[in-house]
Sequence to fold (68 residues):
Amino acid sequence: MEDKREICRLLLATLQATYSASDLVDLEYDAEAEIVTATFASGGFRRINVAMDSGTAMIRDIVNHIGC
Fold:
């Protein structure tokens, strides 16, 4: 079983090191709803449905939805 919270933690650090996602401040995984909430420094956020995703599919979904 993949640890999706850990994947989000590691992905957050990686994305923050990039120019296009440097304003990303949090990727919070809700295991019950299977939703990742991406929060930005501006106060904006995006909710990303990651239900039934593998770890790599979840990464692709997050990257695609935040516009990287």
User: Anything to note?
Assistant: The radius of gyration is 11 Å. Helices lie at 4-16, 55-66. The chain has one domain: 4-66. The first strand starts at residue 24 and ends at 30.
